């Protein structure tokens, strides 16, 4: 494998280019009209235009991507996450073209992609699933309503071909259900081109813990430990860590979950990197939620604690080699936390913020990693997701990692768009977060941007001084405009202008 | 110049003496205040302590983001304060509210029809942007008036979508 096409954009495309570079593999980027100046275009060895900015006309154009692969002589395609990453038909089309798809087999994507089939398959393999409908394909609204009675409320409406919380709605009672089904279908249709939804019992007080899987073509399947992903807002993950403070020192529990995760992956004859998501209740019962048949956004926290480069392993697997590690080789060392830095304003109900990033200082120094596709001069548009970067830190202990993350967040400067950095700063100060006392509802129900933590020192007088100095400066500037006849430039400049005028 | 600056309802009396000195609640302090690279990021050294903050001007106040906290800061000079004391408040609940799009996107739905009564917090527009559906809500009670968009329309940032009277 000498040349890889990366069918993605943003930070993940950059991440994959980096792995390829280190392996001495040439890279081919594809881009939309809005991304001509994006980092993944600038870093790649070759770059080809796909089409207009909307994903449907660019990053979702499988036909064009395959044509570019042919034209450029790429031998493999890495799909990243999102876009075409979990489309079995695209993976199949790659194989039909004689290209290597850096990911699972189309059959595994299809089996895990349709969550109804996924649940049936893993149940057969002896893995527990979340109580709910087995989701028999496309149910009508009436059927959903009657099944809902049997499962009981509260429950979730989820998109059959969904992910990332899109097309997902929580239902508290029967009254609000019809409206929520409609909006879930609408969002699913817009995001995935498939409006089918299914129902799932809502496990309250649950934690979202997932296991990273690697599987090679020779039947070796290992897990790289867990990631704690309970901190979510509207089912979008905001912050992930490894290891999970909930599992903590309970090595037996970790091994039990890990081996179940491996079993679930084997049930679909899995290949390459994937993630098994579990819901875990307070009594340490865990249920299979879904499998993500791709590289995850939050993969770096696993890389930080295990020292394993997951993207390089993906390429290694795709080349047909054995995994570099056995299960015994995998150890978690220290703790890692990832904050997703999004272009959204936490003080204004997390509304997305678009615009030109005019200024940017990345946190650096010991134990810090920033994966990003954004730089000063780059414009954040409304066409793609609002992820600016992933700020990842490593510490010897979880406590050390939290202190380091606080330091890194304080160093990080992004000007031009609003970011959720203040949200993460507040989270790092939260007693419940520090104590590991949270579940998947924490951000939405018990976390506020308004009320400060009790012992947090604030500096209202400094805020007052800053604003007053700015106000004063503006006042002085406006006063200067009124003062007539006074020159706004030095006398030397005036002489220069006068001379040029009379040349 | 003397100012009365309030932060979350708490007043500070600040007098700017000269370029490098100010008086904060009766205490004289040495200050050094600069903009970083002409951005809304400011560095302040005051009494030897160094701070850096984002300051965003709002319609009536400044939002200061400092060490992970947000402060709503309202600055008034003495003249303004006297004017306000004499004239009473000008802006009120009774003026029309024009909902401007906070970001570019596509209008997905308008749950309320023109002419209908709305309550504070009610969803007026569902706007899709960055693949997310965002609910834009009414800041007060009133009647929906002059709806300028329809579902399916692409809108620009700050474009007026509708009014609440």
What would you say this structure looks like, in words?
The complex is a heterodimer of chains A (503) and B (165). Chain A is of the alpha+beta class. Chain A is built from 17 helices and 22 strands. Chain A is 37% helix and 23% strand. Chain A has an eight-stranded antiparallel β-sheet with strand order 13-12-9-10-11-14-21-19, with helices on both faces. The longest helix of chain A is centred in the last third of the chain and has 23 residues, at 460-482. Chain A is globular. By secondary structure, chain B is mainly beta. Chain B folds into two domains: 2-87, Glycoprotein, Type 4 Pilin (2-Layer Sandwich); 97-164, OB fold (Dihydrolipoamide Acetyltransferase, E2P) (Beta Barrel). An eight-stranded antiparallel beta barrel of chain B has the order 1-2-3-4-5-6-7-8. The longest helix of chain B is centred in the middle third of the chain and has 10 residues, at 78-87. The radius of gyration of chain B is 21 Å and the shape is elongated. The two termini of chain B are 40 Å apart. Chains A and B meet through helix 8, strand 16, helix 13 and helix 16 of A and strand 1, strand 2, strand 5, strand 6 and strand 7 of B.
Unreliable stretches of chain A: none
Following the backbone from N to C, one meets helices and strands of chain B in this order, namely EEEEEEEEHEEEEEEEE
CATH class label of the largest domain in chain B: Alpha Beta
Biggest interface and its residues per chain?
A-B, 50 and 56 residues
Count of helical stretches of chain B = 1
Q: Total strand count of chain A, please?
A: 22
- What is the CATH topology classification name of the largest domain in chain B? Glycoprotein, Type 4 Pilin
Strands of the largest sheet of chain B, in order across it?
1-2-3-4-5-6-7-8
Could you name the ranges of chain B where pLDDT drops below 50 across 5 or more consecutive residues? 88-92
Outline the biggest β-sheet of chain B: 8 strands, antiparallel, barrel
* Rg calculated over all Cα atoms of chain B: 21 Å
Mean pLDDT of chain B: 85
CATH architecture of the largest domain in chain B: 2-Layer Sandwich
**Which geometry of chain A do the CA atoms define?**
globular
């Amino acid at each position: 494998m000498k040349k890889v096409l990366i069918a993605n954009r943003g930070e993940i495309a950059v991440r994959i280019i980096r792995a390829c570079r280190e392996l001495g593999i040439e890279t081919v980027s594809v881009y939309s009209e809005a991304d001509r100046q994006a980092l993944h275009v600038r870093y790649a060895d070759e770059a080809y235009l796909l089409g207009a900015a909307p994903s449907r006309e660019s990053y979702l154009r499988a036909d064009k991507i395959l044509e570019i692969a042919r034209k450029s002589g790429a031998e493999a395609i890495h799909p990243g996450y999102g876009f075409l990453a979990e489309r079995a038909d695209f993976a199949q089309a790659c194989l039909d073209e004689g290209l290597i798809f850096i990911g699972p087999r189309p059959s595994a994507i299809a089996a895990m992609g349709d969550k109804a089939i996924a649940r049936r398959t893993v149940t057969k393999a002896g893995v527990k699933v979340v109580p709910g409908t087995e989701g028999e394909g496309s149910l009508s609204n009436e059927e959903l309503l009657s099944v809902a009675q049997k499962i009981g409320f509260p429950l979730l409406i989820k998109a059959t071909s969904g992910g990332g919380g899109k097309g997902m709605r929580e239902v508290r009672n029967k009254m609000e259900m019809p409206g929520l089904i409609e909006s879930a279908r609408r969002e699913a249709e817009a995001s995935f081109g498939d409006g089918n939804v299914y129902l799932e019992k809502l496990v309250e007080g649950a934690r979202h813990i997932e296991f990273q899987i690697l599987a090679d073509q020779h039947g070796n399947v290992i897990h790289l430990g867990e990631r704690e992903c309970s901190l979510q807002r509207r089912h979008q993950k905001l912050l992930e860590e490894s290891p999970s403070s909930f599992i903590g020192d309970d090595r037996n529990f970790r091994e039990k979950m890990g081996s179940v995760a491996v079993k679930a992956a084997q049930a679909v004859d899995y290949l390459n990197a994937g993630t098994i998501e579990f819901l875990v209740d307070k009594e340490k019962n865990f249920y299979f939620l879904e499998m993500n048949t791709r590289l995850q956004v939050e993969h770096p926290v696993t890389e930080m604690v295990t020292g394993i480069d997951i993207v390089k392993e993906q390429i290694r697997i795709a080349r047909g080699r054995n995994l570099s590690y056995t299960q015994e080789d995998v150890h978690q060392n220290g703790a890692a936390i990832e904050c997703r830095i999004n272009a959204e304003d936490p003080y204004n109900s997390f509304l997305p913020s678009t615009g030109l990033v005019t200024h940017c200082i990345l946190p650096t120094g010991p134990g810090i990693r920033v994966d990003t596709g954004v730089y000063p001069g780059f414009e954040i548009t409304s066409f793609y997701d609002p992820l600016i970067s992933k700020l990842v830190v490593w510490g010897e202990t979880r406590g050390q990692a939290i202190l380091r993350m606080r330091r890194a967040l304080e160093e990080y400067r992004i000007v031009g768009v609003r970011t959720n950095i203040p949200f993460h700063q507040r989270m790092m100060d939260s007693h419940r977060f520090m104590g590991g006392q949270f579940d998947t509802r924490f951000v939405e129900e018990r976390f506020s941007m308004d009320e400060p933590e009790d012992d947090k020192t604030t500096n209202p007088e400094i805020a007052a001084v800053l604003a007053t100095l700015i106000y004063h400066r503006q006042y002085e500037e406006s006063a200067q405009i009124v003062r007539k006849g006074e020159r706004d430039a030095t006398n030397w400049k005036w002489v220069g202008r006068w001379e040029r005028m009379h040349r | 110049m003397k100012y009365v600056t309030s932060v979350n309802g708490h007043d500070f009396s600040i007098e700017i003496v000269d370029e490098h000195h100010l008086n904060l609640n009766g205490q004289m302090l040495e200050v050094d205040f600069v903009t970083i690279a002409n951005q809304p990021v400011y560095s302040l050294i005051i009494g030897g302590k160094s701070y850096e903050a984002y300051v965003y001007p709002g319609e009536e106040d400044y939002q200061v983001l400092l060490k992970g906290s947000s402060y709503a800061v309202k600055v008034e000079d003495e003249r303004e304060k006297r004017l306000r004391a004499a004239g009473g408040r000008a802006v009120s609940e009774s003026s029309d509210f024009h909902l401007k799009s906070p970001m570019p996107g596509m209008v997905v739905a308008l749950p309320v029809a023109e002419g209908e009564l709305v309550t504070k917090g009610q969803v007026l527009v569902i706007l899709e942007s960055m693949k997310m559906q965002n609910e834009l809500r009414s800041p007060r009670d009133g009647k929906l008036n002059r709806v300028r968009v329809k579902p399916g329309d692409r809108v620009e940032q700050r474009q007026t979508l509708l009014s609440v009277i």
